[in-house]
Here is the input.
Amino acid sequence: MLREGHEIVNVDARAFHYSPRGWRFFYWRALVTGRDADRKFVALHAPNRTRRIIKSFTRWGTMSWRTTRRVTGHAPQTGMPLWQIPFSLIVGLAFYSLAFLGHFQPRCRPRSRRDRDRAGLCRPQLKMNRPQSVAFKPHDFE
Here is the structure.
């Protein structure tokens, strides 16, 4: 790589990621990404369904544009051959299109417990007992 003119930089990396585990994982991860983005929007901004749908469309457009810009902009720096650029764009746009669909996914449902445990990203849905509402009288706090 040095002979080809590439600069090698040592960084203080603090994370380890496994290599991709196939198309099924790619599909599942994209859907979970969309679902998580939707939940984050609900928690931080608004639970209004109309605003969530608008946000999903704007996020899809933003991420598609960003993917296109980054792949085409960084291809010369990374030494990516021209014939690989369209395939890279297809993969990136497919991921964010699946994430867009994930915005409408109600909850994470992996095919089996083994898939959920292997991914380690989806926790089972827990039913929580909510406390019953209680009416207090003014003299209860005296």
Remarks:
- The first helix runs from residue 23 to 44.
- The two ends are 77 Å apart (CA to CA).
